Amino acid sequence: MDRNETFEIERIGKNGKPLQKSEKFQTANLARILYSFVMVLVFYSFDLPWIVGIGTGHLLFSTVWYLLIEYDILVESELWWSGYVPASFDLIWLTVLAYGTGHITSFFILGYLGSIALSSMSKDRNYGAFNAILATFLFCTMGFLVYYEVLPLINIMMTPVKPTLLSIIISSLLLGGSAFIVNQIVSKLFFTLSDLNEKLLEIAMTDPLTGLPNRRAFMTNLDVELARKNRSAGEYPISFILFDLDHFKNVNDQFGHDAGDQVLQEFSKIVKQSLRKQDFPARWGGEEFMVVLPDTDLEGALVVAEKIRKSVTLTSLELNNIKIRCTVSSGVAVLKDKDSQVETIIKKADECLYEAKKRGRNQVFAENFLDH
Questions:
Q1: How many angstroms separate the CA atoms of 342 and 208, rounded?
Q2: C-alpha angle 223-245-305 in degrees, rounded to nearest 5
Q3: What's the pTM?
Q4: Which of 12, 29, 143, 282 would you label with 316, given CA atoms 20 to 30 Å apart?
Q5: How far is it, in rounded angstroms, from Cα 335 to Cα 239?
Q6: Measured distance CA(10)–CA(7) in Å, rounded
Q7: How far apart are CA 148 and CA 168, in angstroms?
Q8: C-alpha to C-alpha distance for 112 and 116, rounded to whole angstroms
Q9: CA dist., res. 362 & res. 244, Å (int)
Q10: How does DSSP classify residue 213?
């Protein structure tokens, strides 16, 4: 196994699955469905079947789009076109709404700007220019169709008034410009809040000293691996390695807590560099660290534990012209059966760590060593 891949913390979403950013926008997609449904009812009451037909198409699209995201069939953040598609459908439908309600009534503008705001939240991408160009083109085209009497005058809000060419051009440019401005404002505000929430979550799940996940994050990631193991048709062993820095109290007593903190940080760097992307470590408490290796048997876990042990032994920390060297002991246990309890395996790893300490420290001890 190649164990030199980049380490990365996996974020967790609902149902114990990796968090997809698109999940955050399902409320906006539900709002799109509700808005379309209400407007279809409005035009149905005015007996305008072709507008109802277009609105029903938009309603079906919005519903399908919501379901594709909800069931992880489509992940918006992985598809470059995922924001443009709903934005385009919204603009086409809202162009028809403009035709039915009057070209620039206050009712239409509110609905239009609201939908553009929803589209701007569909993905981490700036759709302002796209929305502006498409909106201007669509509204201008609709205006010309009405002006040249290809479509009849309709206005469910007030008495229909035939637009002039100048009013068509100016109103289309104004609406296209508003699409760009609203998109800029809403997307920046939304993603500023979203980034803030992500940073707060990261702080809550990260040990501030070492930068490793804390125990809370560890248990959340572990739930994901257990779910993956339960879904696996074949063997899917999960190895646990519990590390403890030897005589760490002596480091704090002789060199001070600042030196101890640096030792912990240096050890954390060694752990990160020794793991694959799918592996995840955590600061277990004090000078103890836990590492979980998904789909890794005992032999593979021993390779990792020994690699980290040797790296720690060869590493020295220089502080005030004094070189500080540390060693680490570790206990290894493997979760093999789907019915096994995680608490039992972690306890085994802890017992193995105790045995490694008992036998002289600076060594790796596994649950099967006692059998030999």
A1: 26
A2: 55
A3: 0.56
A4: 282
A5: 6
A6: 10
A7: 12
A8: 6
A9: 10
A10: B
SS3 223: helix
Residue of 281 and 371 predicted with greater confidence: 281
CB-CB contact of 260 with 210 (8 Å): no
* Least trusted range by pLDDT, from 123-127, 233-237, 344-348, 350-354: 123-127
Q: How far apart are CA 171 and CA 288, in angstroms?
A: 66
- Please state, in angstroms and as integers, the Cα–Cα distance from residue 148 to each residue in 54, 55, 142, 165, following that order: 22, 24, 10, 10
Strands 364-366 and 328-335: parallel
Site of tokens 């919005």: 62
Among 308, 304, 301, smallest CA distance to 367 is for 301
Rounded distance between C-alpha atoms, residue 47 and residue 42, angstroms: 9
Give CA 79 to chain center in angstroms.
Answer: 14
**Residue 333: phi, psi to the nearest 5?**
-140, 155
* pLDDT of the residue at 6: 35
Q: Are 242 and 353 in contact (CB under 8 A)?
A: yes
Supply the residues annotated as catalytic. Answer: 287
Distances (CA, A) of 112 to 52, 92, 109, 162: 17, 11, 5, 21
Check if the beta carbon of residue 112 is closer than 8 Å to that of residue 136. no
pLDDT digit string (tens) for 149-203?
888 888 777 778 888 899 888 888 887 777 777 777 766 776 777 678 778 777 8
Name the pairing type of β-strands 316-319 and 288-293. unpaired
Phi, psi at 285, each rounded to 5°: 150, 130
Tokens encoding 198: 């992500």
Between 25 and 13, the more confident residue is: 25
Give the residue among 124, 61, 125, 52 at the shortest CA–CA distance from 90: 61
Spacing of C-alpha 174 from chain mean position:
36
